[in-house]
C-alpha cells in the first residue's frame, strides 16, 4: 500500500515538473522566435540608394535638413545616371528667379528649361499640348502673358478656340486666397516662368523619385482630372479598363522600358497608355491631345484640326486588344453621342440668347442664378457626358450627364419665362426639343463600318501624312 502511495506521489511530482518546464520553455522559445523575426528585415525590392556614401555637399547637408528628399532622389534613375542636385538646381547669379543659397545660386523648383537640358523632345511635345499654356490661360486669361508667351500660346493648336472667359472670371471672383489652393493647383501645370520656359513637369513626375510607375498609374492623373467638370478618374474606375486595372494591376510591368510597352506589360490601358505611352503602333508623346479627335472640353465640341491623324494614333493603341470593326463602330457611336450632347448645349443657348438680346441679363457674370445654371449645363454635365461616352462610363453619361442637362434645360426655361414676365414682356415660345445629332461645320463623315467578317478582314486604317493635334 505504501509502495502505491509513493509511486503515485512520484508520478504527481513528475507531472508537476513537466508542467513547470513547459510553462518556462515554451514562452521562452516564443520570445526568442519573435526576437529573431524582428531582427530579420523585410525584403526591400526598391532600387539601391546610390547616395548612401555620397560626400557631395548638397547630399551631406540635406541628409540632415531634408532626409526624405535625399532618400527619394537616391533611389531614382536620375541619381543612378549621375545627375546631381546642382545639375537641376544650380544656376548663374543673374538667372531669372535665382536665389542665393550656401555660397551659390539656385532655383528652389527647377523650371522646364532645366528639364529641357536632357529631355528636349519631351519638353517640345509638352509645349504644344493643352497641359502647357492653354491650361494656364484657361484659368487667368491672356492678359497676364508676356509678349513672348503670348506668341507661344497663339502657335499652339489647342489655343485655336481661345480662352473660355468664364473660367478666368471665376478665378478673379473667388480671389487668390481661395484659388491658390483650387484652380492654381492644377492649372499651374502650364504656368509661365521668368526664364521664358513654361510648365511644371513635377505635377505628373512627382519629386524626387521621378518614378515610371508613379507617372503611369491613373491615380496621378486623379490629382486634377476629377470632380463634376471633368471626372475622368471616376469614369475610369467604372469602365472596363479601370476594373481590369483595379483587379489585376498589381501584376502589371510598371517599370517596363519606355517605348517598348505591349499587352504583356499592360493587359488593359491606364490614362498614360492611351494618351502618352509608346504602345503598339503609336509612339511615346508628351502631348496629351495628340490622339484625340474632338475638343471635348469646349461648350460645343468641334473636331480638332487634324483629327484624322490623331484618330489613327489612338486606334493604334486600341488595335492591340480590339478588332477594327469594334473600334470603327465605337467611334461612329461616340461621334453621334458627342453631337447629341452638343444639341442640348445649343438648346440652352437658345433659351438664354433672347434674354441677352432684350437686355434682361446683366453684363456681369455669375451675379444671377440663371448664369450658374447655364454654365453648369455645359461645363459640368455636358463635358461629363462626352467624357463618359469616350471612356465608357455609362453612369456618367446618363445620371451625371444627360439627365442633369435635361434638368437644367427645364430650369432654364422656367427661369427665362419668369424674367420676361417680371419685365412685363411676353416670353418667347420655348419648346421642348428632341435631342439631335447635327454635325458641326468641321464634322467629316467617318467611313462606314464593315458589314461582314470578310469585309472586316479587308478593312485597314489609312494613315494621313501629317501628324499633330
What can you see in these coordinates?
- The chain has 469 residues and is mainly α.
- The protein has 3 domains: 48-108, no CATH class; 111-203, no CATH class; 227-469, Up-down Bundle (Hydroxylamine Oxidoreductase, Chain A, domain 2), CATH 1.20.850.10.
- Helices cover 52% and strands 1% of the residues.
- The chain is built from 22 helices and 2 strands.
- It has helices at residues 2-39, 57-65, 67-74, 77-80, 85-89, 112-116, 120-127, 133-140, 147-154, 165-174, 176-179, 183-187, 212-216, 218-221, 232-238, 240-248, 271-275, 307-318, 324-357, 369-391, 394-422, 453-458; strands at residues 99-101, 104-106.
- It has a two-stranded antiparallel sheet with strand order 1-2.
- α2 packs across α3 (67-74).
- The chain is globular and about 90 Å long.
* CATH domain fold name of the largest domain: Hydroxylamine Oxidoreductase, Chain A, domain 2
Distance between the termini: 107 Å
Strand coverage percent: under 5%
Q: In terms of structural class, how would the helical and strand content be classed?
A: mainly alpha
User: What share of residues is helical?
Assistant: 40-55%
Q: Using only CA atoms, what is the Rg?
A: 31 Å
Order of helices and strands: HHHHHEEHHHHHHHHHHHHHHHHH
Q: What is the name of the CATH class of the largest domain?
A: Mainly Alpha
Amino acid at each position: 500500500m505504501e509502495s502505491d502511495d509513493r509511486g503515485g506521489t512520484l508520478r504527481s511530482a513528475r507531472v508537476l515538473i513537466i508542467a513547470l518546464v513547459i510553462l518556462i520553455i515554451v514562452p521562452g522559445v516564443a520570445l526568442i522566435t519573435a526576437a529573431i523575426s524582428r531582427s530579420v528585415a523585410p525584403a526591400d525590392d526598391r532600387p539601391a540608394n546610390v547616395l548612401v556614401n555620397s560626400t557631395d555637399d548638397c547630399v551631406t547637408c540635406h541628409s540632415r535638413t531634408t532626409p526624405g528628399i535625399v532618400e527619394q532622389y537616391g533611389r531614382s534613375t536620375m541619381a543612378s545616371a549621375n545627375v546631381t542636385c546642382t545639375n537641376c538646381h544650380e544656376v548663374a547669379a543673374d538667372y531669372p528667379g535665382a536665389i542665393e543659397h550656401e555660397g551659390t545660386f539656385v532655383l528652389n523648383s527647377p523650371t522646364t528649361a532645366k528639364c529641357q537640358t536632357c529631355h528636349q523632345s519631351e519638353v517640345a511635345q509638352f509645349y504644344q499640348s493643352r497641359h502647357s499654356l492653354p491650361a494656364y490661360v484657361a484659368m487667368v486669361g491672356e492678359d497676364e502673358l508676356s509678349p513672348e508667351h503670348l506668341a507661344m500660346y497663339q502657335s499652339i493648336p489647342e489655343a485655336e478656340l481661345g480662352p473660355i472667359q468664364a473660367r478666368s472670371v471665376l478665378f478673379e471672383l473667388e480671389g487668390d486666397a481661395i484659388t491658390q489652393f483650387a484652380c492654381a493647383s492644377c492649372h499651374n501645370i502650364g504656368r509661365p516662368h521668368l526664364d521664358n520656359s513654361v510648365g511644371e513637369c513635377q505635377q505628373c513626375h512627382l519629386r524626387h523619385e521621378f518614378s515610371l510607375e508613379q507617372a503611369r498609374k491613373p491615380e496621378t492623373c486623379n490629382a486634377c482630372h476629377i470632380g463634376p467638370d471633368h471626372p475622368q478618374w471616376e469614369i475610369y474606375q467604372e469602365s472596363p479598363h479601370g476594373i481590369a486595372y483595379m483587379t489585376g494591376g498589381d501584376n502589371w510591368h510598371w517599370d517596363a522600358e519606355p517605348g517598348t510597352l505591349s499587352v504583356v506589360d499592360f493587359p488593359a490601358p491606364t490614362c498614360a497608355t492611351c494618351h502618352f505611352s509608346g504602345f503598339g503602333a503609336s509612339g511615346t508623346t508628351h502631348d496629351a491631345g495628340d490622339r484625340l479627335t474632338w475638343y471635348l472640353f469646349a461648350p460645343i465640341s468641334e473636331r480638332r484640326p487634324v483629327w484624322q491623324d490623331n484618330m489613327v494614333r489612338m486606334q493604334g493603341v486600341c488595335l492591340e486588344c480590339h478588332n477594327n470593326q469594334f473600334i470603327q463602330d465605337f467611334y461612329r457611336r461616340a461621334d453621334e453621342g458627342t453631337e447629341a450632347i452638343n444639341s442640348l448645349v445649343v438648346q440652352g443657348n437658345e433659351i438664354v440668347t433672347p434674354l441677352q438680346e432684350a437686355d434682361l441679363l446683366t453684363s456681369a457674370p455669375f451675379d444671377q442664378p440663371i448664369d450658374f445654371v447655364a454654365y453648369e449645363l455645359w461645363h459640368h454635365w455636358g463635358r461629363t457626358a462626352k467624357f463618359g461616352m469616350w471612356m465608357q462610363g455609362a453612369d456618367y453619361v446618363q445620371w451625371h450627364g444627360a439627365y442633369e442637362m435635361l434638368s437644367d434645360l427645364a430650369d432654364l426655361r422656367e427661369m427665362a419665362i419668369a424674367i420676361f414676365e417680371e419685365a412685363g414682356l411676353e416670353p418667347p415660345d420655348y419648346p421642348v426639343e428632341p435631342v439631335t445629332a447635327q454635325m458641326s461645320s468641321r464634322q467629316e463623315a467617318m467611313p462606314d463600318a464593315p458589314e461582314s467578317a470578310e469585309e472586316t478582314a479587308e478593312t485597314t486604317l489609312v494613315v494621313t501624312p501629317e501628324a499633330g493635334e
